[in-house]
Write a structure and sequence with these properties.
Elements: E1 7-10, E2 14-19, H1 33-36, E3 40-45, H2 60-71, E4 79-83, H3 85-97, E5 104-107, H4 115-131, H5 137-144, H6 147-152, H7 156-165, H8 169-181, E6 195-200, H9 208-217, E7 222-226, H10 233-236, H11 238-249
Parallel strand pairs: 2-3, 2-4, 4-5, 5-6, 6-7
Antiparallel strand pairs: 1-3
Helix pairs in contact: 2-3, 4-8, 5-7
Length: 251
Amino acid sequence: MAGEFDVEVVGEGRDLLLLHSLLTGRESWAPVVPALSRARRVSLLALPGFGGSAAAGPLVEDYADRVAEYVGTLPGRPEVIGNGFGGVIALALAARHGGKLDKLVLADTAACFPEEGRAPFRAMAEAVERSGMPAIVPTAVKRIFPEPYLAAHPEAPAERREALLRMQPKPFATACRALARVDLRPALQGIRNPTLILVGELDAATPPALAGELLAGIPGARLVQIPACGHCPPLEQPEAFLAAVQPFLGQ
């Protein structure tokens, strides 16, 4: 713990901050942390309202400002990798506090969701408030992983269920509603951090078209699409994830 932040730090070197997705915790980074931490001091931060981290306000920008407080405790400008909700927070962090950051990796991230993408967030918020976290487990598993992965990894649903049941309904619902209303498109042109955009070819939660919107908006950004991958590349295809990220970070 570091103040109001629940964080695990691994390795030595330049700082690298990892921000997990809505439907996973920081354990989702486990397959890639050993490789990343060989040349970086990696901070695995539980997002505001998750784990033991203090909650933020109702907007994605509030989450970003809270994460910026943690960034302020680091000795230099960290590189940041965000997946899903963590990527949306990383995007807002770069837009609002970009001078405090170095390189940015946005994995399966969107600046804004169309209405058909917002409705599931509202539905998940209402479901967990009404019936608790178990109510959204089947939906969440299908949003994280595509069917071919689930067919090849029958253990995945039970693992995700365990992770989801550790979350608290109220902060989860708050995060869902923050994603349902977010629109960071006007801020994209102002981002000056070197940016790599990753997207799973089969991501149903943040499809490749939304990654293309980031590519068009962020000056100098690069895009890598990971074939046959869903919403969480560090879990689903860690080797492909590292093959894209490590050269970008200069590892």
